[in-house]
Amino acid sequence: SGEVVRIMYVHVPSAWLAYLAFGVTMLASAMYLWKHDLAWDRRAHASAEVGVFFTGLAIGLGMIWGKPTWGVWWTWDARLTLTAIMFFVYLGYLALRRTTDDLDVRANRAAILGVLAIVQVPLVHFSVVLWRALHQPPTILRPEGPDMDAAMVVTLLIAVVSFTVMYVAMMVKRIELARLEDSILIAEQTNAGPTAGEAVVAPDVGRGV
Predict the structure, then answer these.
(1) Mean pLDDT per segment of 10 residues, for the chain of length 209 residues?
(2) Separation between Cα atoms, residue 106 and residue 94, nearest integer Å
């Protein structure tokens, strides 16, 4: 209520991007397991990083909204608890990727988790219907139509579209960075660079001074 409701225009798009990002991670992970093309692994990795960022943002904004609304920063509501679990599972996904420098082994491990972890997204989304608690039920995607003023709905949709465009821009940059990181790792593993002392040659003693 009041001015705090304006948080919704960032909180909801952040949650939407988390769903979108983790959905893309699942699809890209499945494509890697099928094609074994590291380009799909890089897409899954990039999308997971973006998703973790926006999940954390959604949680933080939700806490700011919750304090004046519920009187507490955090409560073990089903939606909040499941969102926190999802956040830490995908942090684990990112940590798993750092357990080995073998690109194929890393990609296989991450892809399996990337596919399995998507089950959390529908659980988080429908938690307010399955378990009625403090968090408000859906106000837009309802069978009987949105329970919001039309101007608020339009503003929220503009925010969602804007955040989606931002997601695409972030993905393009992060995938390119991931490609460069993989190239450096491959170069280090194959010793593609010059060996120390390679430029040193033995003196020609056959010639006089």
Answers:
(1) 78 94 98 96 97 96 86 87 96 95 95 96 86 65 60 89 97 96 88 55 57
(2) 11
- Gap between the Cα atoms of 33 and 24, Å rounded: 14
* Distance from C-alpha of 4 to C-alpha of 11, rounded to nearest angstrom: 11
* DSSP code at position 118: G
Structure tokens at 157: 């949709």
- pTM listed for this prediction: 0.84
Structure token pair of residue 170: 């972030």
Q: Phi and psi of 65, rounded to 5°?
A: -70, -35
Residue 209 has a pLDDT of: 47
Q: Which amino acid is at 120?
A: Q
Helix (H, G, I), strand (E, B) or coil at 98: coil
Q: State the Cα–Cα distance between residues 123 and 41, nearest whole angstrom.
A: 25
Sign of CA dihedral 147, 151, 155, 157: positive
- Residues 6 or more apart whose Cβ sits within 8 Å of residue 61: 7, 10, 11, 14
Spatial separation of the C-alpha atoms in residues 196 and 182, rounded to whole Å:
23
Dist. CA 207–CA 209, nearest whole Å:
7
The amino acid that residue 1 corresponds to is: S
Angle made by CA atoms 7, 59, 135, in degrees to the nearest 5? 75
